[in-house]
Structures are given as C-alpha cells and as structure tokens.
Amino acid sequence: xxxxxxxxxxxxxxxxxxxxxxxxxxxxxxxxxxxxxxxxxxxxxxxxxxxxxxxxxxxxxxxxxxx
Length: 67
Hints:
3 helices; ZNF706/At2g23090_sf; nucleus; Znf_C2H2_type
C-alpha cells in the first residue's frame, strides 16, 4: 500500500491513463465513407466496394455507371 505523495502520484497517473480519447470518430467516418448505395443507403468507401455490394446484396439490379 502506498502513502502520501506516492498515493497522489499514482492516482494522477491512473487518471491520465483512464481518460477517454479526445475527438470523435464520427468526423473521420464521414470523411472516409464517400459513396452510398441508392437502394439501401448503406455508406461505402469507394465505387469498387459499391460494385461488390451490388453483386452480393442486389444481384438483380444493375450497378451505377461509376462502379
């Protein structure tokens, strides 16, 4: 068990270690996901993923020309 200054220092270090990261991942996610499926509105990172998405989720539909 620690006493006095050691205890205060340990509490300070633990508080710093347990802090939540600053910033939000929502902003980074919005920047990364640029393409969306017009049928089901799922967001995808690039047109190639949109083509793959159409092949697996909407096989009867024709993918957009950009994919």
